[in-house]
Design brief:
427 residues; mainly beta; SH3 type barrels; 6 domains; 5-stranded antiparallel β-sheet; 42 strands; 51% strand; SH3-like_bac-type; Cell_Wall_Dynamics_Protein
Length: 427
């Protein structure tokens, strides 16, 4: 009978232990520091082992302020001060994606959902889940959704920061950032250049589809003033202010090329010997001396000089019959001339190229030449005149006269002109 009681007692104790353990299977804890595990819930009890910080143990129960734990092959007690429960919801797996376009954030995972805001293209977004093609995100403290269709897991390359600089002189483009490197080309003074980086005094640029380098020493971030080159038509005073009674700073000789930075009230602003000066626009021209194709004509009657190439133009003066006039071009039956320092016009109808008192040959002397390239035939003897046609390279041409570098020829029943520069006497 005694034996039976002992067996029943053992069975009851085993069941109690199993029940206690069974209730603890789902619970686990962690140590917050290195701590002693004791045989009993008492600071004076024997130390079974030392549990290291962050050790995970199975919780079997509580006795007062002591946790009853199972750790590896030992059961013991640890004071609750050094234990942290780990029965928390599992951490959500996050993932970072990048928007491939400006992307709406929705309140629900569908395109009809209320719009909470917009993420700019290239924005990095931390997501907490993907379902039915929509990522869950946090947006302004709320749960939001974005379409996965417009995202990528690949981080976009950072766009290089660009800056525009201007060359302060003609500047070599190099293949490498060193002054002894191969020259790829030259940028003219004042050229605007977009750079993508500066290192060791050299800007990186794109040049003819290649990567090139220019010295930052010869650039500026300040856009230069627009300049214009004019030429003096006579010896011309440089004034300290834009008025004819202002102090004289010096004199520019006739034909001097001058770089100006603006014109106001008839005066050009220039730099003269390191100072700001002004010259009268009345005595300058934009045509480089010696480059204009001029023709001398003679008036066949007293001829009005007009300010415009029309009979309605204001009369600036009168040229006497037989006056020799240097013209700068012919357009729509009017010659352009210089008159009293101004541009003016005379009617070509009342002029001739034959000097009065000389005989005009009844039959012009002809000469045969051959074109050295495909050559335009012009209506007048200048390169800007109307094009009448084209002569193929090697064409034999009978010319009538040669004047100021242009041959006159008969072309399709009309008088035309070809540049002698592109002809030869030899076949």
């Amino acid at each position: 009978m005694k034996t039976k009681k002992i067996v029943m007692s053992l069975i009851s104790g085993t069941l109690a232990a199993v029940m206690a353990c069974g209730g603890a299977f789902a619970a686990s804890v962690r140590t917050t520091t290195d701590v002693n595990m004791r045989a009993k819930p008492d600071n004076a009890s024997a130390v079974l082992c030392i549990l290291p910080k962050n050790a995970e143990a199975e919780k079997l129960g509580m006795e007062g302020n002591w946790y009853h734990l199972s750790y590896k092959d030992k059961d013991g007690y640890v004071y609750k001060k050094y234990i942290k429960d780990t029965e928390a919801a599992p951490a959500t797996e996050t993932k970072t994606v990048y928007t491939t376009a400006d992307l709406n954030v929705r309140a629900t995972p569908d395109k009809a959902g209320k719009k909470l805001g917009v993420l700019k293209k290239g924005t990095a977004v931390e997501t907490t889940g993907l379902k039915n093609g929509w990522y869950t995100i946090k947006y302004n403290g709320k749960t939001g959704y974005i379409s996965a269709k417009y995202t990528t897991e690949t981080k976009p390359e950072a766009k290089p920061t660009t800056k525009t600089v201007y060359t302060t002189g003609d500047l070599h483009v190099r293949a490498k950032p060193t002054k002894n490197s191969e020259k790829l080309g030259v940028l003219k003074k004042g050229t605007a250049v977009e750079t993508t980086g500066l290192k060791n005094g050299w800007y990186t640029i794109k040049y003819n589809g290649k990567t090139g380098y220019i010295s930052a020493k010869y650039t500026t971030e300040t856009k230069p003033e627009t300049t214009k080159t004019v030429y003096t038509t006579g010896d011309l005073y440089v004034r300290a202010k834009p008025t004819k009674n202002s102090e004289k700073l010096g004199v520019l000789k006739k034909g001097t090329a001058v770089e100006t930075t603006g014109m106001k009230d008839g005066w050009y602003k220039i730099t003269y010997k390191g100072k700001t000066g002004y010259i009268s626009g009345k005595y300058v021209t934009t045509t480089k001396p010696g480059t204009a194709e001029t023709t001398i004509v003679y008036t066949t009657a007293n001829l009005n000089v007009r300010d415009k190439a029309t009979t309605e133009g204001k009369k600036l003066g009168v040229l006497k019959k037989g006056t020799a006039v240097e013209t700068l071009g012919l357009k729509n039956g009017w010659y352009t001339i210089k008159y009293n320092g101004k541009t003016a016009y005379i009617c070509a109808k009342y002029t001739t190229e034959v000097k009065p008192g000389t005989e005009k040959p009844t039959t012009p002397a002809t000469k045969t030449v051959y074109t050295t390239s495909d050559l335009n035939v012009r209506a007048e003897p200048n390169k800007n005149a109307k094009k009448l046609g084209v002569l193929k390279k090697g064409t034999e041409v009978k010319t009538i006269t040669l004047k100021n570098g242009w041959y006159s020829i008969a072309y399709n029943g009309k008088t035309g002109y070809i540049s002698a520069k592109y002809t030869t006497d030899k076949r």
